[in-house]
């Protein structure tokens, strides 16, 4: 089947399911469509017609999506996130719920169950008296075969690649060639088939873990699923995703919380009660704080430094800094117009400041102005030709526009820069990702493209 035909099929599947089908996914797409056609006793061409028709129902969509996703899970995946959950997030939730002694956690897209069982182990460690609590730990996935495996609680060595021997000995026991989860942990978790695109969602969740699910979907589909997750959270509840999975997607009702280990999202409380971190005195309203920061920057930029004069560069940066921070506060509050105004004033103060260009690109993309987003990203690269996030954002935009060769050139440029960096060097704007990891991902993507 030629590339044009596969592109047509990918468009139909993407429109029907919300999945994001890249060119390097075409071989798997053809394989999945062929398998579903075989099971339905029809030809691939007839299956394509089925996708176009009203007969392409929810059950068939779930079956096709299951074949197009590549599940991989293991216990305590992403050490930084689980360290944060263990040390800070879970104790905070437990303290908040101590009076009613109720706790609700959800692993959305749980695959074969390692993730919700990891959460159950953390709950047991945090609550020695867990039997006196009303605890709900829910694991959901669209694949019934994976859920059945999860219910059995039997795992091979590969699922334990980040588990300390002491934890493995405490919560698992040998069962032939496998390790079996402790029955008391297995009993804490309920597994259920569910699709984040549609169907019922639980309510009042204190914590949701939804990692490496959004990577398969378009930004439009991600926004819809994220909205359902926000609705499922209790006020003040936390959502964790895979790193960068909300990048370029506007999600209402969440506050971004940045910790050394990871980024988390909190469902906003009423503003007068919301506080990101403990502080002395009453929390200041975001727009008021932003206005003060903006005025601070404007005061400093009132008398521009003489070019080449002593401290000129520092003075420009000092003027731009509060304006950029004000823009971030406004953006978090959803006031994008005021955020843009602050960023433009920051560029008036310091036209060589990189951050305003990148933030203006993000705001433009969130507002649906792709051309403006590209313009700001290109200006960011003019200021700093080694700024990797700008190359990758441009690549994503070009992908969505069907400009595959341009997208590949952007990734090649990013890969060239990453290859010259120390492998453990952090990448700005990509939390918990270093140069080596990102370089490996881009190489794998490039290799997949060459195999087409």
Describe the fold and architecture.
This protein has helices spanning 3-17, 26-39, 44-52, 58-68, 79-97, 114-126, 144-152, 165-171, 183-186, 219-232, 286-301, 312-332, 336-349, 354-366, 370-383, 388-400, 404-419, 435-450, and strands at 102-108, 134-141, 154-155, 172-175, 178-181, 189-193, 205-210, 233-241, 254-258, 263-267, 426-427, 430-434. The chain is α/β, with parallel strands linked by helices and 452 residues long. Among the domains are: 3-68, no CATH class; 79-267, 3-Layer(aba) Sandwich (Rossmann fold), CATH 3.40.50. The strands form three sheets. Strands 6-2-1-7-8-10-9 form a seven-stranded mixed sheet. Helix 13 runs antiparallel to helix 14. It is globular, with a radius of gyration of 24 Å. The model is unreliable at 272-290, 296-312 and 448-452 (pLDDT under 50).
Fold blueprint:
Layout: H1 3-17, H2 26-39, H3 44-52, H4 58-68, H5 79-97, E1 102-108, H6 114-126, E2 134-141, H7 144-152, E3 154-155, H8 165-171, E4 172-175, E5 178-181, H9 183-186, E6 189-193, E7 205-210, H10 219-232, E8 233-241, E9 254-258, E10 263-267, H11 286-301, H12 312-332, H13 336-349, H14 354-366, H15 370-383, H16 388-400, H17 404-419, E11 426-427, E12 430-434, H18 435-450
Parallel strand pairs: 1-2, 1-7, 2-6, 7-8
Antiparallel strand pairs: 3-5, 4-5, 8-10, 9-10, 11-12
